[in-house]
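Q: How would the structure tokens look for this protein?
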Amino acid sequence: MNINDIVSIIDEFAPLALQEDYDNVGLLVGDPMAKAKGVLLCIDVTEEIIDEAISLDVNLIISHHPLIFNGLKKIVGSNAVQRSVIKAIKNDIAIYAAHTNID
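A: Here is the predicted structure in token form.
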């Protein structure tokens, strides 16, 4: 099973079309074709959550709140969101958010 297979299952009961206009849901980081090794569920993605995913050797984080809410203009590690994106990419961890589409 790859990450896209899991995303498709989520999309069946929480379609992306149900998100509010201001929201940012779906696969936010990662390779949808990567083989899924495990999933970590959380409310908010933080650097500590990504560290936990690394320690558990899982490569998909499914969160309620999107890590990337507003557009990123640069990814240089100057704040927690940027550092989290960098750490996730470096460790081949995909991040999926289901916020208002699942509410």
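Helices lie at 3-13, 47-56, 80-90.

The radius of gyration is 13 Å.

Upvote if useful.
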